[in-house]
Amino acid sequence: MNTTESAATESALGRLGELAIEVPSWAYGNSGTRFKVFGTPGTPRTVQEKIADAAKVHELTGLAPTVALHIPWDKVDDYSALRSFAEGLGVGLGTINSNTFQDDEYKFGSLTSSNESVRRRAIDHHLECIEIMHATGSRDLKIWLADGTNYPGQDDMRGRQDRLAESLQEIYAALGDEQRLVLEYKFFEPAFYHTDVPDWGTSYAQTLALGDKAFVCLDTGHHAPGTNIEFIVMQLLRLGKLGSFDFNSRFYADDDLIVGAADPFQLFRIMHEVIRGGGFGKDSGVALMLDQCHNLEEKIPGQIRSVLNVQEMTARALLVDTAALSEAQRAGDVLAANGIFNDAFYTDVRPVLAEWRESRGLPADPIAAYKASGYQKKINEDRAGGQQAGWGA
C-alpha cells in the first residue's frame, strides 16, 4: 500500500466510527418461507430476550446501538422499564414500527379503508405507537401498509389516496417536536392489482404534503428487478426526504435475505450515494436499519454478518477517490471514471477492518468470537419451553 492509499484508508477508517445500524427485534424470532415458519433452539420468547440477543450483536461489532420494535409484537405493560432494561445491556430502543396488516379488520385496507371504523382503529393504533415512542425515547414512527386491491374496479384508487392522506395527517399532527413519521413503500404483495404506496414517488408525495417531519423509508428489497435503487437514494437525498433504510437483499422479490448477499456491488453503490448525498453520519438524519428474516441460518450470526456487510461496503465506498472521479466525469472519460469506482469496490478492506476493530477493543472476527462465546449454547438451554417469538408473536 503506497502513501496515498494509506492516507485514503486512514481517512475512511476515521469516518467509520460514525456508522450505526439499527437491528430489528423481529430478526431474532422465528421466521420462514411463505409456507412455513421454522422453530429453532434458543429463539427468544419475550421482547427482553430479543433485546438481549441484539445487545450481543452490538457487543461484538460496535455497530448496532439501537433495536427497532414492532407493535404489537413487542408490546409490554411498561415501556419505560423496557427502555431501562435495554440501556442496562448497552443498547437503546429505536424505531417503532406499526402493524395494520395482520388483523381481520384490515382485510380490505387500514389507513385507506372506505370503512370509517376500520380507519379509526388504524389511526388509533398509530397514536398508541406515538405514546410508546414518548416512553422509549424513539425518534421515528415507521409505517408500512399492506393496503391495496387485487382486482380492477375493486375500489376507488383515488379515493384510497385521499383517505390515506387524511389518516396520515391526523397521525402526523400527534408527533412530538423531535419525532418523525417515515412512510415505507412496496410495489406489490399482498395486494396484486395495485398497492396504495407502491413506490418512492407515492411515498414522497404523501410525506411532502405532511411537512418537514415526514420522510420516505427505502427498503432495498421492495423494488422490481432491474430498478436502479441508488438513483432513488440519490433523488430522495437531493430532495431532503430520505428518512431511513430497511437493508436486506433479494434475488426475486421481497426475500429479506442478508444485506449484500445477492449483490454486494449494489450495496456499495447505495452507500456511495449515501455518502455523496450527505446521508452518512450521526447527524445526517438518515437511519440505517436492517429488515431481515433468518430462515435457515442462526439468527444472531445472521445479524452480525449483516452489519459487517454494511460496514465493509461503507468502508469501500469511503475509499472512492472523489476528486479523481469528478475530474474523469468532467472530462467525459467513461472508462477512467468507471475504473476509479471499481478500484474502490474491489479493495479488500477486511484485514484493515479486523485491525480497526481490535484497536477499539472489539474482536477481529465477530462471527468467530460469537461461536467461541458459548452464548448460543446458553440460550438454547435457558430458553427451553415457553412460546417462541415469531411472525405475529
TrEMBL record:
Protein's UniProt keywords contain Manganese: yes
Pfam families attached to this UniProt entry: RhaA
GO molecular function: L-rhamnose isomerase activity
Its EC number(s): 5.3.1.14
Domain of life of the source: Bacteria
InterPro entries assigned: L-rhamnose_isomerase (IPR050337), Rhamnose_iso-rel (IPR013457), Rhamnose_isomerase (IPR009308)
Assigned keywords, A-Z: Isomerase, Manganese, Metal-binding
Protein name: L-rhamnose isomerase
Gene name of the record: rhaI
